[in-house]
């Protein structure tokens, strides 16, 4: 029985600038994104009937949700419907989601799961889908899903659908931290008092860590001030990470996950031990950020 396994890496918004809002309510963004080499895992295999199973430290939170709203199932159904319009039939599939990332935490967990499901099912069903069709499916699932399909360093504009790969963004050791508090993304965007912030400027042309750290430190996350008001633990978390010697600390996405950048994975792993001793009930994960350099 054929089986395919796809990683669904955590998405980290190194910077997120809110540059406008469309008439349909979608916000326009300019965001610098990388991915961790840690995250959820999707496994798909042929089956007699469709099924979804769950495991992992945060799976119990998904079990409480109505399954039809799960992005993994929406990705399966969206791909199947697109293939059906092309006259391509698809067999039932059993999908297993190993949920290692916190829920609704600003690191694209659900979007990464959906993207990994699409990649895995395309392999399992042996279909050749053009990039435009795949992009359309991904965008219907959510603005972050096209970015997560790439799972490589990138800059995204528009509502997140215009993606530019960044092959010179270097690797960092990275900490992901979350106080295990959910923050409502719609509430954050609604509370913004300004939606026309400047876009991200010129990016380094080299792969030098110092050049990129300086550039990223000059950027910002325009959602962070509002998120800090709604979730005061974010301020505590960023201070704790900064105190471990992180080169840069910031909130990712709409929170509440925050990250710290380090020169090496070893420094990040050492910092995680310190943070876990201080806040044993919070989520901390050391990882490498992915890089093509």
Describe it for me?
Residues 70-151 form the GHMP kinase N-terminal domain. GO terms for molecular function: 4-(cytidine 5'-diphospho)-2-C-methyl-D-erythritol kinase activity; ATP binding. This protein is α+β, with helices and mostly antiparallel strands and 293 residues long. The chain has two domains: 3-165, Ribosomal Protein S5, domain 2 (2-Layer Sandwich); 173-288, GHMP kinase, C-terminal domain (Alpha-Beta Plaits), CATH 3.30.70.890. The chain is 34% helix and 27% strand. The chain contains ten helices and ten strands. It has helices at 59-63, 71-85, 109-124, 131-141, 145-150, 185-191, 209-217, 224-230, 233-243, 265-278; strands at 3-21, 27-46, 51-55, 93-98, 154-158, 162-165, 173-178, 248-251, 258-262, 283-288. Strands 1, 2, 3, 4, 5 and 6 form a six-stranded mixed beta sheet that branches. A four-stranded antiparallel beta sheet has the order 8-9-7-10, with helices on both faces. Strand 8 (248-251) and strand 9 form a beta hairpin. Helix 2 (71-85) runs parallel beside helix 3 and helix 2 runs antiparallel to helix 4. The protein is globular, with a radius of gyration of 19 Å. The mean pLDDT is 95.
Keywords:
4-stranded antiparallel β-sheet; alpha+beta; 2 domains; Alpha-Beta Plaits; 10 helices; globular; single chain; 6-stranded mixed β-sheet; 293 residues
